[in-house]
Amino acid sequence: MLKRLTKASVLLCGALRHGQFIHQHGIRTFHSTIASKIKVDRKDTHIEIQWGPSASPSCSKFNYSWLRDNCQCPLCVHPSNRQKLHSSGDVALSIKPESISIVEGGNGPHLEIKWPSGSLRPHANHRSRSEAHTSVVDVAWLQKQDYSPQAVRQRRNALFKPVYWDGDMYDQRKRSVDYQHFISSNDGLRKALEELRDYGLCFIRNAPTKDKEVENIGRRFGCIRETFYGTSWDVKSIPDAKNIAYTSLDLGLHMDLMYFEAPPGLQFLHCLKNSVTGGESIFLDSFKAVEILKTMHPEDYSVLTQVPVTFHYINDGHHMHFRRPTIVEDDLNEQRMVYYAPPFQGPLEAEEHLVGPFYKAFAKFEEILRDPKLTYRMLLQPGDCVIFANRRVLHGRAEFDAASGDRHLKGAYVDWDDFKDKLRVLDVRK
Amino acid sequence: MLKRLTKASVLLCGALRHGQFIHQHGIRTFHSTIASKIKVDRKDTHIEIQWGPSASPSCSKFNYSWLRDNCQCPLCVHPSNRQKLHSSGDVALSIKPESISIVEGGNGPHLEIKWPSGSLRPHANHRSRSEAHTSVVDVAWLQKQDYSPQAVRQRRNALFKPVYWDGDMYDQRKRSVDYQHFISSNDGLRKALEELRDYGLCFIRNAPTKDKEVENIGRRFGCIRETFYGTSWDVKSIPDAKNIAYTSLDLGLHMDLMYFEAPPGLQFLHCLKNSVTGGESIFLDSFKAVEILKTMHPEDYSVLTQVPVTFHYINDGHHMHFRRPTIVEDDLNEQRMVYYAPPFQGPLEAEEHLVGPFYKAFAKFEEILRDPKLTYRMLLQPGDCVIFANRRVLHGRAEFDAASGDRHLKGAYVDWDDFKDKLRVLDVRK
Lengths: 430, 430
Description:
Two copies of one chain form a homodimer.
Chain A: H1 2-7, E1 11-13, E2 20-22, E3 27-32, E4 36-42, E5 46-50, E6 59-63, H2 64-69, E7 99-105, E8 108-115, E9 133-138, H3 139-143, H4 149-158, H5 167-173, E10 176-178, H6 179-184, H7 186-198, E11 201-205, H8 213-219, E12 232-235, E13 251-254, E14 266-274, E15 277-278, E16 281-285, H9 286-296, H10 298-306, E17 308-315, E18 318-325, E19 327-329, E20 336-338, H11 352-369, E21 375-378, E22 385-389, E23 393-397, E24 400-401, E25 407-414, H12 416-425
Parallel strand pairs in A: 1-3, 10-11
Antiparallel strand pairs in A: 2-7, 3-4, 4-5, 5-6, 7-8, 8-9, 11-22, 12-25, 13-23, 14-22, 14-25, 15-24, 16-21, 16-23, 17-18, 19-20
Helix pairs in contact in A: 9-10, 9-11, 10-11
C-alpha cells in the first residue's frame, strides 16, 4: 500500500518554513544556504534525498535502520568521547519513522525524525533509550554520509591524489623542508605531509646529526613503529651483516618489511655521516610504474593484482610469513598499494594456472622498474632526512667503497594509519 | 613434439641408484626413507611428483620457472642472511631444465636439475649467474612447497586449530602459567603460546605488581605495539574520561583498536589493584559465536563476512578510519578473524541492498553474544595478567563501585605478526 502511494508521489514545491512535514507519500522541496535545494522523498525502507543537480552525488538514499543507528544526539553518541552508546544490533528491525520534517536550525537545515518507542533494544544502563526518540540530523552532515559505492570511493580517495613522477620530473619540482620549520610548527609539518601525500617522498634538511634524532622526526607523524630491528636502526656496512642493507653492496630497489601484516607506511632515513665514494640513494615512484604497466601490458598488470606473493623473513631467531599481491588496488581502504621486495620473497604459493603468467608479468614490471628515467638519484648529506611512503616509493642504494670514508644512516618507521590520521586532523586535503 | 612424447610417457620402475635420470618423456619411481616412494614425471612446463598414496597431497606440480626461481643454493639464496639473490623477474621465460635426475644425498634424496646458460638475467654483481646452473633440490623440502590451494591452505592452518569454548568449558579446563616460569623459561613461554593458540586466552599468575611490568610480559612475545595510548596504558576510573574503559561503567564485550589497519593480535591486562565491589572481567570466544551463527543462520553469517563495517576514532586530536567486515574468513593469511567494537563504529558505508540484511545479521550475531553461557567471568587479582587474542576473544567488564576501593589495570598490545613469529620459531604447532 505504502509502495503504491510512494509511486504516486508528486513534487510539491513549497516556500522555506520551519517544521516542514514530509508526507509518507509526498516529496517536499527545501531551499537553504547550505543544502541549496533539496528534495526529500519518503520511501518504504528509506528516504531519498535529491541534493540538486550540481551536487555530487545528486541523490542519496538512507535506510531507516541506518538513520536510527547513526543518530548523533548526546543520548546516542557520547558528547565528549564520541563513542557510540548503542550497537547497530540494538536497532529494531524494520523500523520506520513516525514522521520526518525539515527544520531550520542555527547551523543550517536539519531533518527532525521522530521514532516510535522501542526503536532501540532496552538496556539497563540507558533506560531512556527504549522510549520514543527524536533524531535531529544535520543535513550538511548527512550529505557527507552517502553510502553509495561511488560516494564511499570518493571519500576514500579524498585524502590522496598522487602525482606520478619520473626522475626528471621529481628533480625539477623537488622541495625540501627545513628541520627547524618542520619540527617546531604545524605549517612545516603540513608541508612535509603534502609532499608525502602527493609524491610519497620528502626531504628534511639541516637536522641535527644526533644518533636518535630520526625518532624525533618520526614522532611528528605519530608513533614510532618498533620492530625486531629496534625503534630505530643503523644502516652502515658491518662484517657478517644479517641484511644486505648493512653491507656496502649495491642494494636493489625494494620496499621494507613486506612480511608484516601492515608494512610501515612511512620510512625515515636520517644521514649522520656520508663521506664515502658512491652510495647514492635511489628512489622510484612505483605508482608511476604501475600506470605504465597498466597502459602497456594490461594483462600483466591484472596478473600482478591477483597473484599473492609470499614474503618471508627466516633469520636471526625470526620466522615471519605474509602473502599479498604485488599490486593491491581499490580495496576497502586504499586506492592503491604496492608490495615489492625480491630478496624477501619466499617460494611462490599461487594457483597453478597463474604461475607461468606471474613470471611473465613480474619480469615485465621489473623491465619498467629498470628504466633509469624513472629513478631519482641523490646523495644524502649529513643532516638530511629522507622520508618516503614505503608502500609506494621504492628505495635502493648504489654500491660504495667502504674503505673510502664513513657512511651512517639511521632509520625508523611510522605506520600508514598514523600518517592518514595526521592528514585528517591537520586537514591536509587536496 | 615434447607434449606428444610426454603424453606417451610410461611408468618405468627402477631400483634406487645414484643419479637416476628422468627422461623428458619418462617417469621414474624412486624409493627412499624420506620420500618413501616418489615418481617424477617431466611435463612440458612443469614436473609432476607422485609422493605416494599415503602422502597429503599425494601429487604435486612444480613449474620450471618456479623451480629455477626457488633454487636454494648459496648462489641463489644468501647462506647466512637467507635473502634471495635474484628476483622472480630475473628468471628467463619458458625455461626448461636440460636434465633432471635423482641423487641420494647424505640428508636424503635430492633432485639435481641442470639449467641451460641464461636461465637468469645477467647481473653486474653476480657474474656467474647467467652461466649454466645446477639446482640441487632437497626432496623433503620440495614436498613442503606444494602450491596447490589445498596445500597452501593446509600450511596456513597448521599453526592454529582453535578449540571453540563456552563459559563452562573454559572454566573447567582453564590453566594458568606462573610468572616466574613464564618469564624465565622457553617452556613457560611455550605453555602461554599454546593456551593462546588454542583458546585465545591465557592467565599469568603471581606477576610483580610493578607499574610497567606488563611491558616485560608483552616483550616475551615480541615488540610492544605503541599507539597513541602509549606503550602501556592505565585502566582506571578517572573523571572526564576520554574512553568508557576509563570509567567505572559496565563495559560491553568488544575488541580493541579495530580502526587500525592491523589491530593488535594480543592484548595484555595486568592487574595492579582490585579492591572494588564489582568489576568482573568477562571474556567470550567469538569464534564459537561465529560457529553458532554459521550453523543456525548461514545467511546472516554470510552477510557479516561481506559487509564492511566502518570503525573510527575521532577524539582527542585523532581521526582514524578503517573499514572491514565483522567476520573475515579464509583469506590469504588467516583462517578466521573477527572485528567487533560497537562503540567505535562509524556510519555504515555499505551497498544499499546489504544495509537491511546487515542490521538483521548483526542483531542475530549479538543475540548469540548475549547468551550468558558463552561468557567466562572472573575477577582479576593483583598479580594476575590476562592475555587474549584480541581478534578472537571479546573482553568486557562489569560495572564497579569506584568508591568501594581501588581498581587499576595496566594494558599493552603486541602484534599478531610477532605472536605467529614466536609460534614458528619455538615450533609450537599442533
